[in-house]
Backbone:
């Protein structure tokens, strides 16, 4: 295990860069913090480098090819972005999943809040969906806030960046019904019967789904508001719709 004391060490500087989308895209790597996310990454063999503040923080089972580092408190704090670091972090490679036929999909159009994105990914995982598709304008899936919000679901199902128009066209070729979440020209979600495969699209927190994409759906659905709130948070609405369509 290598020891790093200085917050100005070259490794610390490189790991800090992984907080930027540019560096994550360039390297195909991302940084996770905290024991839960690290253990999820270890379970899927995604960990390349593991950093702790003392050897007793190391998990019990570690692959021998993982590079181990002990960091001083100062160096560790300089590398991480959480206010209360959990004394363990890891550099991970973006998970690769076997290609298969996706029959239950969550499509995201320009979702911009990292916390919402993480919750959407976690919801798709919990509901047993096959993949999450990130359309244009959607925030990067591997930033720290999204990773923490998803609680390890990044390692459980494919998260793919694709054109939603192409994805919708592919779904229609396979006979998979496509639903949009919208308030106008839509029907209450309970009027639709869950029948197996589906693709659900949810959109931007402020503007909803791009009208051009909404025109490609088979049906648009809404969740009725029984109180005085105008709408639900996008992740909450998606959870209601996904679990209904999941049957």
Residues:
């Amino acid at each position: 295990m290598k020891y790093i004391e200085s917050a100005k060490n070259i490794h610390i500087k490189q790991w800090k860069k992984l907080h930027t989308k540019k560096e994550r895209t360039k390297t195909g790597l991302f940084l996770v913090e905290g024991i839960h996310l690290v253990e999820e990454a270890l379970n899927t063999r995604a960990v390349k480098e593991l950093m702790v503040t003392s050897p007793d923080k190391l998990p019990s089972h570690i692959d021998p090819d993982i590079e181990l580092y002990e960091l001083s408190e100062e160096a560790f704090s300089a590398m991480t972005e959480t206010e209360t670091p959990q004394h363990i972090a890891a550099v991970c490679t973006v998970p690769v999943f076997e290609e298969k036929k996706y029959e239950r999909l969550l499509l995201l159009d320009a979702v911009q809040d990292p916390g919402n994105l993480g919750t959407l990914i976690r919801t798709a995982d919990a509901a047993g969906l096959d993949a999450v598709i990130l359309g244009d304008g959607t925030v990067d899936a591997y930033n720290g806030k999204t990773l923490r919000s998803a609680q390890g679901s990044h390692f459980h199902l494919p998260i793919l960046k694709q054109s939603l128009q192409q994805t919708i066209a592919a779904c229609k070729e396979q006979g998979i019904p496509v639903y949009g979440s919208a308030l106008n020209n839509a029907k209450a979600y309970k009027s639709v019967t869950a029948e197996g495969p589906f693709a659900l699209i949810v959109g931007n927190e402020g503007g909803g789904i791009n009208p051009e994409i909404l025109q490609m759906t088979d049906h648009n659905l809404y969740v009725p508001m029984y109180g005085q709130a105008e709408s639900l948070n996008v992740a909450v609405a998606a959870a209601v719709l996904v679990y209904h369509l999941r049957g």
